[in-house]
Amino acid sequence: MASRLNPYISFAGDARQAMEFYKEVFGGTLVLNTFGEFGQQDAPQADQIMHAMLETPSGFTLMASDTPPGMNVTRGDNISVSLSGDDAAALRGYWEKLSAGGSVSVPLEKQMWGDVFGMCTDRFGIPWMVNISESQG
Predict the structure, then answer these.
(1) What is the number of structural domains in the chain?
(2) How far apart (Å, rounded) are the C-alpha atoms in residues 137 and 123?
(3) Each residue of 36-68: pLDDT tens digit?
(4) What is the pLDDT at residue 128?
(5) Which of 45, 50, 117, 120 is the most buried (most CB within 10 A)?
(6) CA–CA separation, 46 and 90 (whole Å)
(7) How far apart, in whole angstroms, are the C-alpha atoms of residue 17 and residue 29?
(8) Is residue 52 assigned to a domain?
(9) What residue stretches are annotated with the Glyoxalase/fosfomycin resistance/dioxygenase domain (predicted)?
(10) pTM confidence score
């Protein structure tokens, strides 16, 4: 298997809902494993997500988990998830779904470098950047 690099997001108890949302946005196969499935059946977080992986038809892989008790979750100020390419229809569709119920910090529009670009934070507090490259045709 080749090496790969993909986002791994920590959530504060809502990883299942977030990953199901991302499956609605991107499609694909979602595998969810709980803490209870891996030997912590009696723990308070038994039903929370120990590991989730979404693999999409577009080749995206997104992983996540709920943060165990005693660990803090902070997010939003040091990382964003970036989507880019030249399939404008697909990227605009992702943008519409990701920004719905969230907040837009940079509207998806043509930028000075020639591409269409926008930044939003989804309803789970995850920041996203979407860049639609101008076709080089």
Answers:
(1) 2
(2) 36
(3) 887 767 777 778 998 999 999 999 999 999 987
(4) 93
(5) 120
(6) 36
(7) 15
(8) yes
(9) 5-130
(10) 0.81
Domain match, 15 and 56 both: yes
Q: Is residue 89 domain-shared with residue 41, that is, in the same domain? A: no
Identify any residues that bridge with 23 across adjacent strands, giving them in sequence order.
none
Residue with tokens 């977080």: 45
Q: Are residues 61 and 87 in the same domain?
A: no
Angle (CA) 70 71 73, round 5° = 135
Q: Are strands 61-66 and 49-55 parallel, antiparallel or unpaired?
A: antiparallel
Q: Is residue 44 part of a domain?
A: yes
Burial of 23 (0-12, 13-18, 19+ CB in 10 A): middle
Report the C-alpha gap between 80 and 64 in whole angstroms.
14
Report the distance separating Cα 51 and Cα 36, nearest Å: 11
* 46, part of any domain: yes
Q: The domain spanning residue 34 has which CATH number? A: 3.30.720
pLDDT of residue 78: 63
Tell me which DSSP letter residue 78 carries.
S
The two three-digit tokens of residue 122, written as one number? 């989804």
Distance CA 60, CA 44 (A): 32
Give yes or no: residues 58 and 87 share one domain: no
